[in-house]
Amino acid sequence: MARSLVIVESPAKAKTINKYLGRNFTVKASIGHVMDLPKKTIGIRLPGEEEGGKKKKSRAKKGSKKAKEKPTGKIIELDDEKIFEPTLQIIAGKGKVINDLRKSAITADAVYLAGDPDREGEAISAHLAMVLSKPSRYIEQEPSVSRFKKKDAKAEEPVTKVEETPKKEPVAIDPKKIFRVTFNEITPKAIRAAFDKPRQVDTNLVDAQQARRVLDRIVGYKVSPILWNKVRRGLSAGRVQTVALRLIVEREQLIRAFVPQEYWTIHAMLDAGQPPLFEAKLFKHKGEDIEVKDQAAADKIVGAVSKAKWQVASVAQKEKKRNPPPPFTTSKLQQAAYNRLRYTAKRTMSLAQKLYEGVELGDEGSVALITYMRTDSVHVSNDALAQVRELIPARFGSNYLPEKPNYYKSKKDAQEAHEAVRPTDAMRAPEDVRKYLEEDLFKLYQLIWQRFVASQMLPAIFDQTTIDISAGDYTFRATGSVQKFDGYLRVYQLPASIADREDDEKDDEGEGRALPQVAEGQVLRLDKIRPDQHFTEPPPRFNDATLVKELEEDGIGRPSTYASIISTIVEREYVTKDQGRFSPTMLGERVSMLLVKSFEDIFDVTFTARLEEELDEIEEGKLPWREAVKEFWEKFVVDLDKAGDEMLSYKAGIPTGKKCEECGQGELLERISRHGFFLGCSRYPDCDFIQDLSPVLPEDTGGPPKIEYCDNCGKEMVIKRGMFGTFLACKGYPDCKTTRRLVQGTRIAHQPDEPLEEKCSLCGNGLVKKHGRFGEFIGCSGYPKCKYTRPITMGIKCPKCNEGEFVRRGSAGKGGRGRPRIFYGCSRYPDCDFTTPYMPVAEPCPKCGAPFIVEKRTKIGTVHACIKDNCHWEKLIPDVPPQTQPEELPVPVAAKS
């Protein structure tokens, strides 16, 4: 009997599901997306362009030969029925995976697409259905084997022709036997329920994902080249990330513009004749609110009340309840994980993914511990409610269980078909699985388990007392709050620091403070009085938790995108993290200023939020996806045309209105170089005055220096200067040689090492991605005890030693200035000194069979060639731009060099 095929995204998820389905099913992984837009072209049918993708308009001068050229193809109009249609291709390297899935699908009774229950999972499932049911349209194209003759080739040398072997047409899978199944948790019951009611791929979900992808690609491919022309090559813009950057930049501007205001508070320590002494704070004057602005006003009040009679004016006692919080949504999980565990949003989602897909629990094998972690719903299934209501009285006592389950209301646009983030089995307590989990996984699971259990417990109860005391014309107030019943706080304690609490966890003044028994009219004795000076503070910079909260409240992005939004703007060096808080770099501020000014609508918070709502409407089938993209395009294309001509250019220099300090004649222009922003004289080269605009070192400002600590030994890091510039170094040198480089163009410390999912072969500690003088490399987190390192290689064997692999390297230009020279060398250097100036490509030579070829950039275009001795194979690659244009993805490698 043939088995049914189940396709999921990851091997870990496949392993967990496989043990629940039994022998009649084969579970395989697609390892993420299998199809996407092409890398080297925009891949979208845009209005105003020819069928082949060429632009309708040319910026060539009137009368020139180029201007007289007529379009060779049909111009795409906005009312074209296939307008904005994306051209999807199989992702490079996925051919083997797809062929393996096809082979299994041919003999299977049925094919079940079991991707994640969201837009991305639906899109992956749709793409898998496409490549399985219509394989002839989606075959990975092998490179052509034709060759052209070089100009300097000998006349008598024949041009070799290599005949292509005709490919066998792949067998198409009957679409009728392809089904879609979804589940919010990987448990036997949830999986059985999903397979009992399979469905077809939801085209509305696919359209919503496709619309987002198209919008992101349009912004990335159209706006990024403008930044290349106006600021620096390699920069990129993103539809959502730029708005997040704008929030951080505008917050920084508010902080700079903030003017502190002085104010005073007055505190009295009073004795009621029995312990304890208690503190009261100035509250009102003659029944009206009072504001004490300076010391003179404070001294006047102190003088008046010091001689006054202190008498209890009123005593109010009431019982106050603190209700339990709802179970986690994605954003609340990210906020709580940062506030309580100091996990970044990216780290939280990475750990949650592992808990969802399954972890090894000894003899039980791979077990999924939590439900799907990308959700904006607080809904909980009846089965989960019944289980946790059974757990609470058994573990904590029946007095902690409410009569009925606690139900919570999700926000208006939440998807109620999804559940909150919760344990798949509430009976599996954190201490039961601790021995199987790494520390960070255990802490996150414990947090999710505690929050879910607490959400179904009774409120905590406090006795709150408020005492108003009269002192002449002034009224002082004392507030005390004592816990009477811990309720849900038995399992989900509040963070000790008020600043680390969420809004619904912050309490009134007086928490935990006991007050003595007093009666109305009772006379009190003034023990001492204390005036305190304060200054108003600017709004704080965002951290991971507050930025996620701001994005959610503004409607920017969705639960699945918050982590990638934050990590992208950090990786592009548009923002830095200082003591956990985000600050824009000078580059980030300048880029944000240019983009917001030129694309006022597109990068507007309200407009972006409305676009997210439209994506939700597409998902619900209320709005055709092309209509949403068309509405966006009509606004975007107007701003795009203006930006190309009107956007200020840091390459040409932006006038500052200041006279040159050296010659007194020229105007200072703000410009950018590979070292950062600077001011230069408009009379250059006659006047070569320049002024560096990089942020000054903390020790140069006269303010307190920022303290950073060594990741290895915990000692203080200090800023030092070496032959390659400034850097951070550990005070423990020479015992600890830890250093951190500074972000290019600034004097701000670069981000710390990035942990990898790999162990050191020498000591077993985790490996990390480090940053050295010559770029990134992999090293042991146990340094300096373990000095294991290895370069980040390209996976292509060195042809000289056949042991090492190619590594991308760079060297400075002549005299340490000018454009860096990029080359590729053996990872075993200096034992092997093989290098090539051309980028190796992991494809065999079709003529001689060499294991790799290289990519050259020549005057006639991009050429693939073989560098093996006596093999002169070359091939011209048509329509390849000199540099891949970026979109809402990490910056191209060429931009980072």
Protein architecture, described:
The chain has a six-stranded antiparallel β-barrel. Strands 2-1-5-6 form a four-stranded parallel sheet, sandwiched between helices. The model is unreliable at 56-63, 65-71, 140-165, 697-705, 812-820 and 880-897 (pLDDT under 50). Helices cover 27% and strands 22% of the residues. It has 19 helices and 36 strands. The radius of gyration is 33 Å and the shape is globular.
Please render the helix and strand layout as text.
Elements: E1 4-8, H1 11-21, E2 25-29, E3 35-36, H2 65-68, E4 89-90, H3 95-107, E5 111-113, H4 119-133, E6 178-180, H5 188-196, H6 203-230, H7 241-257, E7 262-271, E8 278-285, E9 288-289, H8 295-306, E10 310-322, H9 330-341, H10 345-357, E11 359-360, E12 366-367, H11 382-395, H12 430-433, H13 439-455, E13 460-471, E14 474-485, E15 523-535, H14 544-554, H15 562-571, E16 575-578, E17 581-584, H16 586-598, H17 605-619, H18 625-646, E18 654-659, E19 667-673, E20 676-681, E21 690-692, E22 708-709, E23 716-722, E24 725-730, E25 739-740, E26 754-759, E27 766-772, E28 775-780, E29 789-791, E30 806-811, E31 821-826, E32 835-836, E33 839-841, E34 853-858, E35 861-865, E36 874-877, H19 893-896
Parallel strand pairs: 1-2, 1-5, 5-6
Antiparallel strand pairs: 3-4, 7-8, 7-15, 8-9, 8-14, 10-13, 10-15, 11-12, 13-14, 16-17, 18-19, 19-20, 20-21, 22-23, 23-24, 24-25, 26-27, 27-28, 28-29, 30-31, 31-32, 33-34, 34-35, 35-36
